[in-house]
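Running low. Any example?
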Amino acid sequence: MTRPSLQAIRHVGFEDLGSFEAPLRNAGYEIEYVDVAENDLARLDPLGADLLVVLGGPIGVNDQAAYPVVTQEIELLETRLAADRPTLGICLGAQMMAASLGARVYPGSEKEIGWSLLELTAVGAPNPLAALQDIPVLHWHVDTFDLPDGCERLASTPICLNQAFSRGPNILGLQFHPELIAARFEHWLLGHASELGTSGVSPVMLRRDTDLHGKRLEEVGVRLLTEWLARLA
């Protein structure tokens, strides 16, 4: 029997599938990382993988002039989402998805870096984020986006109205980071040290809060992903 295929578009090494990788392998997926610094995305078949995951990174949707890969990703996602192929976007990935669906992506009112609760919305179908009720999650973003046409808002925070959206069972965009592995968080702090310094965000505080909340997020993040996979059409 052929295993289902998964391609994960990765922008920086430490922002990978994290805690999502084990349940994806348990679900039978054969995982291929596509590192944008080493691969020409124009050669990637937008419909080739059974599941596409677009991961986070330190660039933005509006950095197309400086980083041409942004344009390549948006064009790839336009084709894939038009075909309603299963797609998950995390942080930058969710912003890319929103842009490919015609929504505006722009700087938020302030940077959202740190741990806080989500306010989940009541949607017609069961909210795939239900496992995260009353669970602090990690936020690390500057930009936000408008809700794309035809999509449902799933979660908000006071700083960011659109923390998560879906379009049917196959399309899910998450502005926050449910895939974090707490034991690997030091990679994030070191990799984003310059941004933390210019933002006035304390790595000591982030490390402390990750020690408090990280393991619990790993547990419920796995449940979130497992339940979403089970509903894919």
Observations:
- Helices lie at 21-26, 69-82, 92-100, 185-191, 193-199, 203-231.
